[in-house]
Specification:
Elements: H1 8-44, H2 55-101, H3 116-124, H4 143-150, H5 157-164, H6 166-177
């Protein structure tokens, strides 16, 4: 069997047809919901016939309606509380599932060499033209000073130990410290 490839224009046409069909079905679904809502309201809340009622009867009708409204408000509040509780629980469970799945594994970081100018540009923004030569700010050391330090008297250490031993050595150390 030979597989046929679908051209890009054909794919685009099929996608547009699918979108049009989905839009049509969504509109139908919204119309059905609206019709169902109207039907439910007609059943549960028939139109009121207030003509020919006395003032006392109208007051009694208002009291009944207020009592029904209070009951419905309490039910609505309870349902909203349950919904909020359930959504919080669903979020917590989703977080646990993602943690168990290990979706948040951190990638291995790579070392990237960035120049000092690039770091300053990223910190200060591209509008600041700051060029900083780090080596220019370093303290320069003359070679002569380092060579002088190296040429310290090298003598026999045994003589030094014998000279410093006993009370005479401690006296010399004490005198040298003052």
């Amino acid at each position: 069997q030979k597989k046929s490839k679908i051209s890009a224009s054909r794919k685009l046409m099929l996608k547009s047809l699918m979108v049009a069909k989905a839009k049509e079905e969504l509109e139908e679904e919204l119309a059905d919901k609206e019709a169902e809502k109207e039907k439910y309201l007609c059943e549960k809340a028939p139109p009121l016939q207030t003509s020919g009622m006395s003032f006392a009867e109208l007051q009694e009708l208002c009291r009944e309606l207020h009592a029904k409204i209070d009951v419905v408000d309490e039910e609505r509040y309870d349902i909203e509380a349950k919904v909020l509780h359930n959504t919080r629980e669903i979020k917590d469970l989703n977080i646990k599932v993602l943690d168990l799945r290990g979706k948040f594994k951190r990638p291995a970081l790579r070392r990237v060499r960035v120049s000092a100018d690039a770091i300053l540009r990223s910190l200060l923004g591209s509008k600041h033209k700051v060029s900083m030569d780090l080596r220019a700010n370093l303290k320069s050391v003359k070679k002569e000073d380092t060579e002088k330090e190296k040429t310290v008297e090298v003598s026999d250490w045994r003589k030094n130990v014998e000279a410093m031993s006993g009370m005479e050595g401690r006296k010399k150390m004490f005198d040298a410290a003052q």
